[in-house]
Give the backbone structure.
Amino acid sequence: MRGRKAIVTGAWLLICGGIALLLGAGLYGVAASALDALAQRPADWPGWALLFDALIIGLPAGAMLIALALGLRGRLPGLKTERQQRHDA
């Protein structure tokens, strides 16, 4: 049963990471176009790196961390806790 839990949790990690990466990239694009006043924010503005790190790296990492925590507790769809299995039987 442990192997199935690892497979389901790994699948949810990939799903959450992928969705969060797409969402972060979209938000980064919107923020970049909204903050595109080059006279005020040149390409070497440190805020670009902060936005990139927060949205492209931090958002997927946070989503995957939450999915991992839920998977270890057996709270993800596709996982049944031992108590639920005994109750169903």
User: Anything to note?
Assistant: The mean pLDDT is 88.
